[in-house]
Amino acid sequence: MTRFAAALVVGAATVALSAGAAIAGPTLDAVKDRGEVACGVSTGLSGFSIPDSTGTWSGLDVDFCRAVAAAVLGDADKVKFVPLTAKERFTALQSGEIDVLSRVTTWTLTRDVSLGLNFTGVTFYDGQGFMIRKDLGVTSATELDGASVCVAAGTTTELNLADYFRLKGMEYNPVVFSAISETAQGFDSGRCDVLTSDQSQLYSLRTKLDDPESAMVLPEVISKEPLGPAVRQGDDQWFNIVKWTLFAQLNAEELGVTMDNVEDMKNADNPSIKRLVGTDGDMGEKLGLSADWAANVVAQVGNYGEMFERNVGMDTPLEIARGLNALWTAGGIQYAPPIR
């Protein structure tokens, strides 16, 4: 055999291996053996992750964890929710206590490259803002010189706050708490003039105040806060599964596949829909999952739009408009690669 022919044989073998089913990774094996996905969530934030009086969790971040369980185990209820503070969240993921972190966490360069994490996408495009009491008579964040500000420790919020006041030449007195729920309690009890966090969280926290109508969110947005799930680095298969779970939900919304019609869509002629619901191609096999992995996600949790509206949309107490979180076809920036 000539050197050129040998090279062709080796190359063909490499292509054949890469084109086959995904090589099983440690996280997928562990999840299947355990029979549930361990998901890190917040200690309680309305619309994103919060337990009710029976201990049942709900919210956008919660539903994404349920979507992962539906994709991997075929059952969205097979999730163990682990409530974590901002300080605890990364250690819990690094140590293997959880399989995925879905906890209003901002994707930044430092977190992406220095903490042993991989962010898998953006479930909510957000930005930091300020909530004040209306009786202060303040209408702009530029009027907050000398204010006391409640802020959660160990967050990008702390850094953004310092940057903003320094750039504006203003002074402030930070009142730091270990959890976002404690910052709201501090604000409600009068320990600070201002509460700062991502605007989505401010609208959520406002609903929990003793008198929600006494507070308002100022118009300024002082940062980019792309919030999304994260997994540990070093397990490409699990990274791909979590990433493509979100992409499947976004593609489902774009293609008009919903909780109500996903079963009927299995008979669709559209090749993009057929690949999504698993009646054509080997998309599930490539991920190491069943052919109907994405159909299970949509049937049990919904497409992205359904998940958004159910938890934080205009018909919820938060009344958050889609805005940037609308699909790219509807004026937003949510956009997923195709399943093909």
UniProtKB/TrEMBL annotation:
One Gene Ontology term from the biological process aspect of the record: amino acid transport
Keywords: Signal, Transport
Signal peptide annotation: 1-21
Location of the Solute-binding protein family 3/N-terminal domain: 36-260
Highest taxon listed in the record's lineage: Bacteria
InterPro entries in the record: Bact_solute-bind_prot3 (IPR051455), SBP_3_CS (IPR018313), Solute-binding_3/MltF_N (IPR001638)
SMART domains per UniProt: PBPb
Family: Belongs to the bacterial solute-binding protein 3 family.
PANTHER family in alphabetical order: AMINO ACID ABC TRANSPORTER PERMEASE, AMINO-ACID ABC TRANSPORTER-BINDING PROTEIN YHDW-RELATED
Protein name as it appears in the record: Amino acid ABC transporter substrate-binding protein
Organism of this sequence: Roseospira marina
